[in-house]
Design brief:
The chain is of the alpha+beta class. Helices cover 28% and strands 26% of the residues. It has ten helices and 18 strands. Strands 2, 3, 4, 5, 8, 12, 13, 16 and 18 form a nine-stranded mixed β-sheet that branches.
């Protein structure tokens, strides 16, 4: 779903690349002038690139884009295409012989949803960056959210679609006295916080306002009734992958519970037919047609952005507080099998930078994240 009327913070643009047949894609947020950034990673199965420049003690003081891609670790190659596009357009740090754009990125695991052999690559990242605009937000099963799913306690067959969601909130902050000049009258200024979320969680998505599950594990592949992952886990029902890490659950039995999609199975069989006989035999013996190895990885990746001016330490705190929005809407969140990552970007107007309290900004960011997570799954129905 595309909404042309939605304006991004000035200086920020959004682009998607979507491969509907392979059910994967990538998403990029571009800030050509550079953005002061922070990051917070809570999941234990994250896949990232260029995270160190976001640390407060790192020499690099800004990033030029943040990418999110499907394809697991293969999808990190999409960031190369984003860099190529930005370099061609003169974006990045001037090092004399060229400009070097800093592109931070994170990935989700969607290899078992469509074709595991088609992943976002350099060209996909380039296309996403080239399509970036600041006056349109496309949501749902698009970009990095194309192959996202949520609620995998009972296997991928019982999961619900995830996706890409957006929200934008405003809050008031006292105007800086220096900006007001001699006048000491109390004035406020509006600060914008925007959140962009790719939701591919192990847990269910919970609407905190309506206090109910709106996407997640279903009781059966054909059921529309949610099983309630949190309640089932409290009763001792756990994923086979949790068990297999301790007791060696066989991949063959897991395959019966969680088969690959028809498209993915056909791709695997086609590849197997092209293998030498000895390699094909080993491939089949190891359970090449199993879905179990594709179902353990889950991630919600979020980018929050503000038009207020903050330093790197403050942006890291905003990223940390924004993670509360993930915890409010996904149950359980931050598991061993999730790679929950939140990036935070400060994109102020260089001529008239806005000032705001970091705690207020962090709390509003958490609310924006919660709304973006809910939007991501609501728009896939």
């Amino acid at each position: 779903m595309s909404k042309p009327g939605q304006q991004l913070i000035p200086g920020l643009t959004l682009g998607h690349y979507t491969h509907p047949q392979a059910r994967t894609g990538c998403t990029v947020l571009v800030c050509e002038a550079g953005a002061v950034a922070g990051v917070d990673i809570r999941g234990s199965a994250s896949g990232t690139r260029e995270i160190e420049p976001l640390r407060p003690d790192h020499l690099v003081d800004r990033v030029h884009a943040v990418g999110i891609a499907g394809g697991s670790a293969f999808g990190l190659a999409a960031a190369d295409g984003v860099m190529e596009y930005l370099e061609q357009h003169g974006v990045g740090f001037d090092v004399g012989v060229t400009r070097v754009p800093i592109v931070s990125a994170a990935i989700i695991f969607d290899l078992g949803v469509g074709s595991p052999w088609i992943r976002p690559d350099r060209q996909a990242g380039y296309s996403a960056a080239a399509s970036a605009r600041g006056d349109r937000v496309e949501q749902g099963r698009v970009g990095a959210g194309t192959g996202a799913t949520v609620g995998k306690l009972l296997g991928s067959a019982c999961a619900s679609p995830g996706g890409f969601g957006f929200s934008s909130l405003k809050f008031s902050a006292p105007q800086d006295a220096k900006a007001r000049g001699a006048k000491q009258t109390k004035k406020t200024q509006e600060i914008t916080i925007q959140a962009f979320a790719v939701v591919n969680a192990f847990g269910d998505v919970f609407n905190p306002q309506k206090r109910k599950i709106i996407a997640g594990a279903r009781r059966s592949p054909s059921s529309r009734i949610f099983a309630d992952t949190y309640t089932l886990m409290k009763r001792g029902i756990i994923r086979s992958e949790f068990k297999s890490a301790r007791s060696g659950d066989s991949s063959r039995s897991a395959a019966k519970r969680s088969p690959l999609s028809a498209t993915a199975r056909e791709s695997l069989q086609r590849m197997a037919r092209q293998m030498p006989p000895a390699v094909r035999k080993m491939f089949e013996r190891e359970g090449a047609d199993t879905g179990s190895r594709f179902n353990m990885q889950n991630t919600t990746v979020v980018v929050v952005a503000t038009d207020a001016q903050f330093n790197k330490i403050q942006m890291q705190k905003i990223a940390q507080m924004a993670q509360n929005g993930v915890a409010r809407t996904i149950r359980p969140a931050h598991t061993l099998f999730d790679g929950d990552t939140v990036f935070a970007l400060s994109v102020p107007d260089p001529k008239h930078p806005l000032q705001a309290d970091v705690n207020a900004a962090g709390e509003v960011a958490a609310e924006a994240v919660a709304k973006a997570v809910v939007a991501a799954v609501k728009l896939t129905r």
